[in-house]
Structures are given as structure tokens and as C-alpha cells.
Amino acid sequence: FMDAQGEQRPDPNTSTQADNPWFPAARVITGPNYQPDAYAALTLSELDADKLGTVTRGRFNSQQLEARRRYTTYTPRGYEDAALPTIYLQDGVAYYRYAKLQMVLEALIAQENLRPAHLVFVEPMNRNDDYSFNQAYWRFVTDELVPDVERQLNCTDERTLMGASLGGFVSACIAWQNPDMFSTVVTQSGAFLGTPAHKDAYKATESWLLDTLKDNPTKPLRWYLSCGTMDWLSEINRQVATVLRGKGYEVVHTESTSGHNWVTWKNDFARALKFALGLN
Q1: Which letter does DSSP use for residue 80 in this model?
Q2: Which of 129, 141, 126 is nearest to 174 (CA)?
Q3: How far is residue 218 CA from its own chain's centroid?
Q4: For the residues 14-41, what does the mean pLDDT come to?
Q5: Residue 241 and residue 33: Cα distance in Å, rounded?
Q6: Rounded CA gap, 72 and 6, in Å?
Q7: pLDDT for the residue 3
Q8: pTM of the model
Q9: What is the mean pLDDT of the chain?
Q10: Which of 47, 144, 190, 237 is the S-S candidate for 168 at Cβ 3.0 to 4.6 Å?
Q11: Count of Cβ atoms closer than 10 Å to residue 171 Cβ
């Protein structure tokens, strides 16, 4: 809905608001049998706030991107001195401040269903520029961000890249180029459509990632893909999953009756984390 000034406004016929940090005016429709994942509905009242972990802020001047870049790290309580795996998350502000992935991590650790890990929430400047075939951004992550994080935290060499939509796509690209650095890729509604010549995932019909996976030997990567069946990216995610299976990768592909939004992704957090950090 748009007002006379062309600004988006919530649906006037319902009091239900979109659970979305970027498009709060989006319409909300839920089916009669919809139930949120128990972990997605966690609030601070359900977790002991005194038992949440350590948060640090990092920032440095990136030579690759010629700009000052920021990130936030989260280490589960009680593991401040332990060497832990690391998950690097694109769209870090949304994953940390809005979706609160760290709370799901803590809940799963408390239930002894998950190994602990550092979470690194990476802040984009312009996500379309950063995430769409930007090899300078790839080098920023591998050559600058990872070393800076590992100077601050006690990390093992087990690293995961995770992101939603274009954040999932750039995670896949970086891992593909650097399988010696990253072992696991977690994508939520991965925006796998587009090529270097036609970058717009909303309009593209070709997929550079799909063709690259088809045409190259298998690399030592594990893959987790999730997508809603009402997402325009559902078919390309199915195709990527099929190619990955055919090439012999360890891959999990899940679908839900939902769309391209943070409700879908939050409902998927527990499954995604269990894939990345399941008990050995």
C-alpha cells in the first residue's frame, strides 16, 4: 500500500505487521495451520540474560574495499577462552539485532544439541554492490576479515559461511573460491540466479553458480540449502541441490511452505545450525 506521497504503508485492513526489518509495510498472510519454530519464537524472557555470551565490535579500514568496515562477534558464555569453530554471517545487522541468531545458538548449546561456535556478523555497506559478483568483497572476507577476527578470538580452522538471499549467494561464491579456508556453506533462499554480465537476481534466468558447479570438479565443501516453495528462487535452489547431489557433495536441501522473508529464515535457524555445528 502506498500513500499520496508514494511512501509504503501497512495494510489498513489488518493490525498484523510484517516481521521484516527492510520492508515493515509488506502484507502478512499466514495459513490456518502455521506454527513458528520454537527456537524462532525465543525471547530474552525465555533465556537467562545473564547467561548470554560475549559481544565484541570490530572495525578496520579495508584496503580491498577502500572503506571502513564493521562487524560484531558473539562467543557463547563459558567458552571465552576455548578454541571454537566460526560462522561468518552476511547481513550481520539483521542476523544479530533483528533475527537474533545468537539466542538460537545458546538454546541449542544448553540442550546439548550443538557444538559452540563464534558468530561473526558482517555488516554490508551496499549489499547489492557487496554481494553481486564483487571479487574485491570476496578478498575482503578472506584476506582481511578472517585474519582480523582470528587475531581477536581463539578460533579453530573450521569455518562456515552463512547468509540469506544475496548473502547466501556471496557465501557460496566465497566458499567455492576458497575451499581450503571454508568447509561449510549455509544458504537461506540463496539468490543463485544471475551472471557477471546480468547480475540482477530478480530478472536473470541464467545461473553462473549452477553452471560453475556443473562444469567443475567437486571441492571439499558441505552444503545446506533452504528455500520457501512460494519464493521465486525455489526452482533454482532445487536445481543447485540436484547438481550438488549428482557431483557427490554432502548436501541438505529443505523446503517450507513460505516466501522470501525473515520469518522463513528464522524458522530455519535451528536446522541450519545443526547442520553446521552438529555434535560429532
Answers
A1: T
A2: 141
A3: 23
A4: 80
A5: 28
A6: 35
A7: 86
A8: 0.93
A9: 93
A10: 190
A11: 27
